[in-house]
Amino acid sequence: MNVIIGIDPSLTGTGVATAEGLHTITSKPSDTTLTGRRARLTTIVHELDNIVLGVKPWRFERIPNLIVIEAPSLAQKSQAGTLDRNGLWWLIVDRLHTLGIPVVEVSPSTLKKFATGKGNATKPDMRMALYQRAGLDLRDDYQVDAWWLRQVGLHLTDHPDRITLPQ
């Protein structure tokens, strides 16, 4: 069976959706030095390895067939952390490519359109669509986005676990 995973990268809470469940990798800056910022990003990537690969000591439990990741939002105004957020995205994508895992990126507006039918949907709209389509009432927006990203992958691969969407 194909292993499809959705990832919503974020400095404060990276959402991950797997067949086994939903996860959020939380992170707070330890310090604002270059070394501290780098350590924060690499810690997130290492924790992501544990979830995505099912890492056990000295071996990987699985290699996913496809990862769907949300692309950085280019429409956002420049703000503190933009460089670090984009760096995290590239570190994750580079790690997945190094492992030979196919990666599909989905823009935020495409994800919103997939989930709700509207490219400018709000976070509450995304949560409501999840509740209406799957009966899941999640309060963690990172997990909500990751769940929808995984659904994109399930639909792309015609996976039997995909939900039915309206036309």
Keywords:
167 residues, alpha/beta, 5-stranded mixed sheet, 16% strand, single chain, 44% helix, globular
Structural class: alpha/beta
Please give the radius of gyration in angstroms: 16 Å
- Mean pLDDT rating: 90
Number of DSSP E strands: 5
Largest sheet: 5 strands, mixed
Helix/strand order, N-terminal first? EEEHEHEHHH
Sheet with most strands: strand arrangement: 3-2-1-4-5
**Portion in strands:** 15-25%
Helical content class: 40-55%
Name the overall outline. Answer: globular
Q: Tally the helices: what do you get?
A: 5
N-to-C terminal Cα separation, in Å?
Answer: 27 Å
Which consecutive residue ranges, at least 5 long each, have pLDDT under 50? none
Task: Describe the fold and architecture.
The chain has helices at residues 34-53, 82-98, 108-116, 123-134, 141-156, and strands at 4-8, 13-18, 21-26, 66-70, 103-106. It is α/β, with parallel strands linked by helices and 167 residues long. Helix content is 44%, strand content 16%.
